[in-house]
């Protein structure tokens, strides 16, 4: 088949596309970089000129401030001001005005803001009302420089005569400086007040423009009206700031944007001027003409486009010549490949070029030779593959029969299981319902197999398990769980586990159901029997104990051997009574017959009582008990007798399993809403294999130093039941090197007592 486009055409088109994309990207990135650079230059130019204009605007006020500070601190001036010597103060002000001729008014006020002296003012003794700036200077006893909008009446009063003839509502923007005069004791004697009316200096921005150049326009506004600008007078008098710009400036923010003034485009930045009270009174703006930047951008774009056009033409011409040189040998290779496709494996390509095309021709010839050799090998291997296929089919048959046999064994195991088993597929439809399940639920398989597990659960009364079954079907919620249900009077343990395939995906659920109704009945009968027997044995044993104790205390005629035998009998009787008491305690707790008298108690007092009970036993083994429980702990809500029983049991175990001469420590601390009581010993750490026996009935742990220690194995089980009835928990912690710590928690007052648990509720 003849190709629609040859290699040469594709090569030329590819080179052309690459050139267009490359130059387009280059032009775009260059223009973007150039625009950003010009934008940065414009912003920098604006910021520089605004900073310069702002400094020039403020410099006059600073000069006035520092010029007035010297007379304000002069003792002679203070004395003349106190004496209200107007003539002397007027002469002093005229000297200052000669130094600062740009000031439009210069006054001296007393402490009550009344005019004492002033250049060109006849308002002697009148109060000067300039709100904000005068109050701040006199109250703070500091120099205040602020730009204020003052009415014509105040300006006339201050000595600006031209404003005496203007309307009463006329205003002017005044750069005001107030310098307080302080007495030797720091009291306010008066102040100097100087002001420059910016409306009278319309050429101030023009002076700044002489430094910045003709492309920079500087303006000062009183609110939205320009009062001083380097613009021509016709533009200056007719131009005002737009409401949108005023909105930004009134918030105290700097406005940046584009503006068209006259016939020229400008980038402008406007800085708000605020008075002493933070109110917007005017602005100072700098505008930079963008003609020069636009012209630079246009010239650069023209140069880049011209260079790109010339580069594309030259590159395309070189690509055309190179493609003609390269595609000739490739056409020969294509013709030989078509003949090989038709089955002619005797083709050869003559390659004389000492480049990649020559290497390709040599590789092509080697490929043809390899194809001929491989063709002969394939024919030989085909027969071998047929034989292997027959062997594979025989192996599949053998594995299939073995799998059928294994499935038969599995089915026999499931059939003979005493526990009911239900298995679902990945769609949660039942695929297995063994005979034990049929007998337990009295259902035949055809009513269950193939049905959704939800429908089967509703049929057999397993509705409470539906939520857990849905959770197991989620990949991240897999695993297994155990649930307890009562269905049709039967107590059932249900074990649920999810199945996964070889890729870890959900493949179904296995439910194993065990009927424990009979087991629980037997366990209850056993508990009742033990409780009854214990009650029956306790009374005669108590009588025996009393009789033995009487014989030991009052029988003086006993021989040593008889007294020793009676002592052994008395000790074993005590042991039997203790064993029966513990059995009765655990039975009473489990059956709910044990009465708990809950009330506020102090852990500190309970630990003292418990230590006193166990002290003699500890002294017999040369073990010291250290009680660090303080009285600062909050009171807890519990049964004092039962809590003392818990602490006594823990101390007894600690003393029993500690080597002689060691220390047993009891401590307590508050953690959140609970008090944690801990008993720590220095015995050998309990092995991991024995820790599961802790807190279980009739389980004892052997001590490696002392062998098997006597006891019933009920102490920790009783402690666990008592602590849990107090809504706490008991737990074990092993030390890093040597020692064991048993701890339990009891809620403080205000936590469990709100639940209404009292001694008569159990």
From TrEMBL:
Residues in PAS domain copies: 406-476
Localization: Cell membrane
Keywords: ATP-binding, Cell membrane, Kinase, Membrane, Nucleotide-binding, Transferase, Transmembrane, Transmembrane helix, Two-component regulatory system
InterPro entries noted in UniProt: BphY/WalK/GraS-like, HAMP_dom, HATPase_dom, His_kinase_dom, HisK_dim/P_dom, PAS, PAS_fold, sCache_3
Primary localization class, coarse: membrane
EC id: 2.7.13.3
Key word Translocase present: no
Residue span(s) of domain Histidine kinase: 532-750
Membrane topology per record: Multi-pass membrane protein
Pfam families (UniProt xref): HAMP (PF00672), HATPase_c (PF02518), HisKA (PF00512), PAS (PF00989), sCache_3_3 (PF17202)
Domain HAMP: 324-376
Catalytic activity annotation: ATP + protein L-histidine = ADP + protein N-phospho-L-histidine
NCBIfam families named in the record: sensory_box
Name of the protein this chain belongs to: histidine kinase
